[in-house]
Design goal:
82 residues; 4 helices; 68% helix; elongated
Length: 82
């Protein structure tokens, strides 16, 4: 098995640093693990629209569809009444 050849010096230095900090047996293995971790992270990530829809649904469940908005000014004014 041949080693990993990286043309970009900065990328090569990062790969060597990653190899050292993760105790990977080779630069190739360090890069393989990093790529696999990134692929796993993206595979498990929900799209933003889906995450927002879940938050909106939970808020509708919590406050209901037809509730009037909270009157923040009245709430703050009550705090000043002693």
């Amino acid at each position: 098995m041949s080693g990993l050849y990286v043309k970009d010096n900065a990328v090569n230095e990062m790969a060597i640093k990653l190899m050292k900090v993760t105790n990977a047996p080779s630069k190739t293995e360090a890069v393989r693990r990093a790529i696999q971790n990134e692929l796993n992270r993206h595979a498990n990530e929900k799209p933003l629209a889906e995450r927002v829809a879940e938050i909106q649904a939970s808020m509708r469940e919590l406050i209901g569809e037809n509730k009037t908005p909270h009157d923040h000014k009245a709430f703050m004014d009550e705090g000043w009444d002693l």
